[in-house]
Amino acid sequence: SRSLNLAVIPGDGIGQEVVAQGLKVLSSVLPQDVKLETREYDLGAQRWHRTGETLPDAELTDLKGHDAILLGAIGDPTVPSGVLERGLLLKLRFAFDHYVNLRPSKLFPNTATPLAGRPEIDFVVVREGTEGPYTGNGGSLRTGTPAEVATEVSVNTAYGVERVVRDAFERANSRPRKKLTLVHKNNVLVYAGHLWKNIFDAVAAEYPDVTTDYLHVDAATIFFVTQPERFDVIVTDNLFGDILTDLAAAVTGGIGLAASGNINPTGTFPSMFEPVHGSAPDIAGTGKADPTATILSVALLLRHLGFEPEAVRIEEAVTADLAGRDGTVRTTDEIGDALAARVAG
Ligand code: NAD
Ligand code: IPM
Ligand code: MN
């Protein structure tokens, strides 16, 4: 019989609230013969306040033993900015070599978006996950003085760029439209930009069926809003991908619907699935958080582990749920209950 051994990191703020709904829908969608085991990890702001720890080695090792990780959100206003984001979330992405940060966008029905009525919007951002300005390669001189100098160096290796570009070409090649857009800023960031463009062009030669395109990131933000249909697969660096995917979420139905997967394609380490959004301290504890992004992240998790019919059931339930919405405001719990009922086998 099949099994699913899941690590769960609810984290901070609404992370706790939305993960509870994600697990509810997961138990509801899984067939009886699948043995689901979950282990919850107490990591995040509370743990840091109590012990000063963000992600001890023992827990990192322990997390490695699971099929996948489900994460809510990390970050809290009572903790200095960056401590948990770097010490926990980015540490996991780097340690488990999550070099493909997969962030799909579809236009959802019946949501408040300037793009309503354009159902052909269906693209996926392949965001590089282990390099760029996220590596912590920087520092500050004369800190706190009027002469302070801060650097935050973007690290781009041929190895790191090629592997994520190849992954994006494979994805584009397996989709009906077979189109891949590289987004960068090679008119200004000439070293990293040219590395990306040269590798992109070299790999493109191996994929004659894939139509390729290049956009500077500033222009890409225009087309995300005015011509989102032009995108199929997008490949971009860590920081550009971060910014573009919040924009993509906002224009395709809202940040409460945007799912993501931090994928280690080689399978050496567990992949980690989480909503694109953060811990939303402004609404934490109010029941206003939309758990759909987490529930859709559970669908990505299931697909990654080979539970394709269950992933599709969740995605279809979300579409049906949104289509049937009558404008009544629902709580986090009510949305989770509705989706759990829809996916029940
Ligand atoms: P955020 O995504 O938490 O919130 C931005 C806005 O979107 C807020 O108004 C919030 O209420 C709203 N929002 C977010 N998720 C929602 C949901 N599910 N339903 C309804 N509304 C939702 O971004 P922020 O305010 O920039 O960051 C807050 C904290 O979260 C920071 O500490 C940040 O570092 C962290 N963060 C963590 C992650 C992560 O864990 N992957 C992602 C982004 C931000
Ligand atoms: C995200 C978040 C993270 C990122 C932060 C919290 C480190 O914004 O997952 O999009 O920048 O990748
Ligand atoms: Mn982000």
From TrEMBL:
NAD(+) binds at G278, S279, A280, P281, D282, I283, A284, G285, T286, G287, K288, A289, D290. SMART domains: Iso_dh (SM01329). It catalyses: (2R,3S)-3-isopropylmalate + NAD(+) = 4-methyl-2-oxopentanoate + CO2 + NADH. GO terms for molecular function: 3-isopropylmalate dehydrogenase activity. Its main location: cytoplasm. It is an enzyme of class 1 (oxidoreductase). The record marks Y134, K185 as: Important for catalysis. It is found in: Cytoplasm. Keywords: Amino-acid biosynthesis, Branched-chain amino acid biosynthesis, Cytoplasm, Leucine biosynthesis, Magnesium, Manganese, Metal-binding, NAD, Oxidoreductase. Residues 5-339 form the Isopropylmalate dehydrogenase-like domain. Its EC number is 1.1.1.85. Pfam families: Iso_dh (PF00180). Its cofactor is Mg(2+); Mn(2+). Mg(2+) binds at D218, D242, D246. Substrate binds at R93, R103, R127, D218. Binds 1 Mg(2+) or Mn(2+) ion per subunit. Pathway: Amino-acid biosynthesis; L-leucine biosynthesis; L-leucine from 3-methyl-2-oxobutanoate: step 3/4. Catalyzes the oxidation of 3-carboxy-2-hydroxy-4-methylpentanoate (3-isopropylmalate) to 3-carboxy-4-methyl-2-oxopentanoate. The product decarboxylates to 4-methyl-2 oxopentanoate. Belongs to the isocitrate and isopropylmalate dehydrogenases family. LeuB type 2 subfamily. Homodimer. This is 3-isopropylmalate dehydrogenase. The gene is leuB.
